[in-house]
Amino acid sequence: MKKLIPWFLVATLFLMLAYLASRSEVPLDDSVRFVDIDRYLTRQAMAQDIDTLVHTFERIHPYPYRFVEKRRLRSRVDSTKAHLPDSMTTMHFWRLIDQLLIGYNDAHSKVEDRYVLAAYVKKNRYFFPFSATVSRDKIRISTHDTLEYPLVNGTEIVKINGKTSEQLLRDLVTHATRETPALKRLEISDDFGFYLWKTYDWGPDFTIHYRTKEDSDLDSIVVNGIPWAHRKRSENPDTVAHTFTFLTNRIGLMKISDFNGDEGEVLEFYRQSFQSMADRNCTHLLLDFRGHSGGADSYGEHLAKYISMVPYRKLSKAYWKITPEFKEAFDRTFVPIGLRWFTPIYLVNEYSRVFYGADPNELVTVNYELKTPLPEEERFAGQVYLITDHRTFSAGSIFAEMFKYYNMGTIVGQPTGNLTSFTGFALANFILPNSTLSFQVSSVYNVANSREEGLKTVEPDIHVDAADDPLTQVIGN
Predict the structure, then answer these.
(1) What pTM, to 2 d.p., does this model score?
(2) Fewer C-beta within 10 Å: the chain N or C terminus?
(3) Burial group, residue 8, by CB count within 10 angstroms (0-12, 13-18, 19+)
(4) Secondary structure of 354-405 in HEC code, one letter for each residue
(5) CB within 8 A of 404, min separation 6: which ones?
(6) How far is CA 389 from CA 118, 170, 272, 289, 470, in A?
(7) How far apart are CA 386 and CA 287, in angstroms?
(8) How confident is the model over 263-278, as pLDDT tens digits?
(9) pLDDT 10s digits, 111-146
(10) 21: part of which helix (H) or strand (E)?
């Protein structure tokens, strides 16, 4: 009987830990984030919200003035506050602070738009009825959201509601979140109507001046706006995180749209995919990362162990700003509420080990260790191609830089949608006290293996024009 007591205690402890680990966090109340876009804010309330926005960004962000001079941005903030009207709707104020936050030039720090958009759509308001792309300072219709008007694809938009194309582009880029002028224009091209809505208080009708050919005269037309549900997108986001198919017996195609989902399932997907290629003696692997929205960068390390010939790491190092808000958001995301009392649990998670024991608001330096690839007999021995575009973002861009730095294969397509070294990991959301508008701020600065820290993206080895399909080109060659 005495021998059973220790086992009973161990079993009891195990069951208690399992119960505590299963306790779920009480979800945050999202109701305050659904704002009344037509509610008027006083000048004093708006000034207070702007001060809160700037103060929060400076406190949370590891390098708030990395790409903008502090004195210049502070001068812009002061000017904005000085020119505030006596009152303004929440919708108009949202556009104003969106520009202010984008002025810091950090693609992961942004004012949330989905709650404002939801309120706008709920009121049955209208959007621009055409998709359009931006190329060489010209705006051209790319797809029809309505068959009511005779404007064919390729029609050049010269003016909308009296704004010339030059004025339109100058205004729209102030609401584009990406970090270089080229990426901002590609971002606008992905959803021109959305950025038009973000920038102007227009609708329900739009007056368009256009020309169908380079040498043709201007013509004009008044078009009706359309509901959000009737819009069409030139680029439809992928709904499946990862798929694997064989293009031929010797060519495998792995499409990865993000690094989210259950880690165990992702690891099993990798294992099965590479095993099936080994069974068929595949000689070529195509990794399609177009539209990769990011996620857990460790998932990219798991993938790299199958294709790297040398030890590798996802980044050379990172700087983490360990604020109380960041730690609270981290706990909500990664640590079960029932186990937070047991502080050694933080040593289990590779991320929480970083800030375990850190002082409040400390900037912690993390030097990443090299990962060992699989033994040679278990690795993929064929040629690997990575396909990227301007929507290969965040953890997808980290993988691309690692892939290139360690010569894992050939990158084909377009430059990535994130800088080589960038700030990210924006876990915490903040709500402004008066407008109740929400925003997020980056907490981590990632430094690439190459140590490149300027306004440069990961460049492909073989550049393929955006109008062409890189997948077809790789297979054709």
Answers:
(1) 0.88
(2) N
(3) exposed
(4) HHCCCCCCEEEEEECCCECCCCHHHCCCCEEEEEECCCCCCHHHHHHHHHHH
(5) 411, 458, 461
(6) 29, 24, 27, 8, 10
(7) 5
(8) 999 999 999 999 999 9
(9) 999 999 999 999 989 999 999 999 888 999 987 655
(10) helix 4-22
